[in-house]
Structure formats: C-alpha cells, structure tokens
Amino acid sequence: MHIYLIRHAHAEDGTPDAGRPLSAKGRRQIRKVGRFLKETGGLEAEEIWHSPLQRAQETAEGLRKALRLKAKPCEKAGLRPDDDPQSLAHRLRQVRYPVAVVGHDPNLSALASLLVAGRSTPLRFMLKKCAVLRIDRSGNAWVVRWQISPEIL
Q: Less CB within 10 Å around the terminal CB: N or C of the chain?
C-alpha cells in the first residue's frame, strides 16, 4: 500500500486564508506535475483527500483532471496547516489502497516525519508547493519511495 502526500500549489495572497484560490503560477505547477505523473504512470489513487481550504481543493481537482483519475476528491479532517498529524496517521494506517492526500505545511511534513521516522518533530521532510512525496507501507514501517516538485521537472 502506498500514499502520496501532496502540498497544494502556489496560491494568491490575501485574506481570508481559507478562501485563497490558486494563482496562475499554481495552475502551471499542477499542469507540469500532472503531465509528468501522467507520462510516467507515477500516481495512482483510489481516493483523493484534501483539506477544506480552497487552494488544496483546487490542487486536488486539478491533479485529478490532469491524471484523468476516476476518484473524486473529498474533504477530510486533520489536513489544515496546523492540525496535529496523529489522527490522520492513524487513519492512513487503516487504509488498504492507494490514497493521494492534498494539504499544507507544516502538517504534511509533520505527517511524513511521523510515518517514516516515528515522530512528527523535528521535521524530517520539507515539501515545496505542489511537491509530491510517495510513501510505501512495508509491514508496520513506512518507506519513502520518491519525491518530486515542479522546480526539478
């Protein structure tokens, strides 16, 4: 089983924070990452989870379209920027199929650190905007398979 942790793409500045849409740069990031993942067969997910914040919703939907995934994005608790990653880590340990999780930092970096290193602090990962980190479960352990970001494509 594997999961994809995806930080939202670049968003417009402004308030309220929860309603900030993706910027033109963010939409370009999604196209670039989506094209790469489509060409390489690098992302398969039966579910796409996202935070309630608009930029995460738009990132999830943009990647779904770019990859032509059948899974519909759905909002999940525990994915706001400052949420404790413990409950989400527990939920992911129960899942038996590939899931893409679209959220924010520092939450996603803390979640990756918790899964891989067993502790959410200090942070062991730093996800750039629109970065994708694939983590595979091997028994009770989680192992990093790969990470990409728009800057390296």
A: C
Q: CA-CA distance, 102 to 7, in Å (whole number)?
A: 6
Signed CA dihedral, 17, 128, 44, 85: sign only = negative
> In sequence order, which ranges of the chain are alpha helices (DSSP H)?
24-40, 54-67, 86-94, 107-117
Position 69 pLDDT exceeds 90:
yes
Q: What is the pLDDT of residues 131-152, one digit of tens each?
A: 999 999 988 899 999 999 999 9
Kindly report the average pLDDT of the chain as a whole number: 96
Residue 86's SS3 state is helix
Does residue 115 contact residue 135 with C-beta atoms inside 8 Å? yes
* DSSP symbols for 103-142: E-TTHHHHHHHHHHHS-SSS----PPTT-EEEEEEETTEE
Contact by Cβ (8 Å): 66, 31:
yes
pTM score of the predicted model: 0.96
